[in-house]
TrEMBL record:
The keyword 4Fe-4S does not apply. One of its GO terms (molecular function) is protein dimerization activity. The chain crosses the membrane at residues 19-38, 67-83, 104-123, 129-151. Residues 172-237 form the Signal transduction histidine kinase subgroup 3 dimerisation and phosphoacceptor domain. InterPro entries: HATPase_C_sf, Sensor_HK_TwoCompSys, Sig_transdc_His_kin_sub3_dim/P. It comes from Asanoa ferruginea. Keywords: Kinase, Membrane, Transferase, Transmembrane, Transmembrane helix, Two-component regulatory system. SUPFAM superfamilies: ATPase domain of HSP90 chaperone/DNA topoisomerase II/histidine kinase. The keyword Chloroplast does not apply. This is Two-component system sensor histidine kinase DesK. It comes from the Bacteria.
Length: 359
């Protein structure tokens, strides 16, 4: 089974850095450098190497001051050797797209485009040369700026997705705690009052104390029944419902989901167990994996029912299989009926496989 690799922008967001601009330095400088070496111009060759180093430092450190120093060096090169504008101006435009603050970057790129085109057109008396340099400079700068901008947007979206997943879990916990408080708050208060009455009346009115004790027992049994009903309402799961919920939750988290339908011939206990696996596995994908795709497959044969959840998240699942309360609880549930749970990182993400006997 093959898992799709994550989209390029998602990969860029998880591996931020100026590398996509740095790769252009050798591409743009190799031709002038070879020309300088073959032309026996060691000074020019050394200057080009210095330009490459200055470009690298500008992109790594960012800021207007490093960019200004790089501009001065490039201007000096053009003044002394009066060549290679078609390489120097695009190089400066790329540096501007990465190093200059975003609100100024496009203006700087535009200025480089115009100044380079005018200088090339006047020197060569050629409109074609001017337009070619303008096109190369503008495209180099704007493309770099857009990549930088999109990486920032995707990083923000990834962070927001994680925050939404955490918020959903927190809201569910809050809802559960609120419901339990509403359910038990009054009942426990009555039990406390009744217990105090028993303590006060035990010596002087044993019959009344016994009556209050019976009330405590009745209220306690009723509360236990209500708690069981409430917990049963939360914990009763259906594999079909959980697969539908997983598809919706993954879609809300911007994860492309491939969810197979549940087999129709699963028993009630197996159906519930696999439903818990799907719920916990989906939660782990949303909270831990930073995945872009997730595949959930359900199958069965004569002896075994199986759920497999595979994602392409570089962060994988929880830090350790034994460290996650959810996975530990799942393993205990499955092992209690002779099943098993396997969770491990893969070269392309994370895989969780749950097997239970087809009861």
């Amino acid at each position: 089974m093959t898992v799709e690799r994550e989209p390029t922008l998602d990969w860029l967001a998880r591996h931020p850095g100026p590398w996509f601009g740095l790769v252009w330095a050798p591409v743009l400088l190799v031709a002038p450098l070879v020309d300088a070496i073959t032309g026996a111009q060691p000074g020019r060759a050394g200057y080009l190497v210095a330009l490459g180093v200055a470009f690298t430092l500008t992109v790594l450190r960012t800021g207007e001051l490093p960019f200004a120093l790089l501009t001065v060096l490039c201007t000096g090169y053009l003044v002394v050797w009066r060549t290679d504008r078609e390489f120097i101006f695009p190089l400066l435009a790329i540096a501007a797209g990465l190093a200059v603050r975003q609100r100024w970057a496009l203006g700087v790129v535009t200025g480089l485009t115009v100044s380079g085109a005018v200088a090339a057109g006047i020197e060569n008396r050629s409109l074609d040369t001017a337009l070619f340099l303008a096109f190369a400079t503008f495209i180099a700068g704007v493309a770099t700026f857009l990549i930088r901008y999109l990486i920032g947007i995707v990083a923000e979206l990834s962070a927001t997705r994680e925050q939404l997943a955490l918020a959903a879990v927190a809201n569910e916990r809050l809802r559960f705690s609120r419901d339990l408080h509403d359910l038990l708050g009054h009942t426990l208060s009555v039990i406390v009052v009744k217990a105090q009455a028993v303590y006060r009346l035990l010596d002087r009115d044993p019959a009344a104390a016994a009556e209050h004790a019976r009330d405590v027992e009745a209220i306690g049994r009723q509360a236990l029944t209500e708690v069981r009903e409430t917990v049963s309402g939360y914990r009763a799961v259906s594999l079909g419902e959980e697969l539908a919920n997983a598809r919706a939750a993954l879609a809300a988290g911007n994860v492309v989901a491939d969810v197979a339908p549940a087999p129709a011939d699963l028993g009630g206990q197996v159906d519930a167990l696999l439903g818990w696996v799907v719920r916990e596995g989906t939660t782990n994908v949303l909270r831990h994996a930073s995945a872009s795709t997730c595949r959930i497959a359900v199958s069965r044969d004569e002896e075994t029912a199986l759920v497999e959840i595979v994602d392409d998240g570089p962060l994988g699942g929880p830090v350790g299989i034994g460290d996650g309360t959810g996975l530990r609880g799942l393993r205990e549930r499955l092992e209690a009926v002779g099943g098993s749970l396997t969770a491990a990182a893969t070269p392309t993400g994370f895989r969780l496989i749950a097997k239970v006997p087809a009861l």
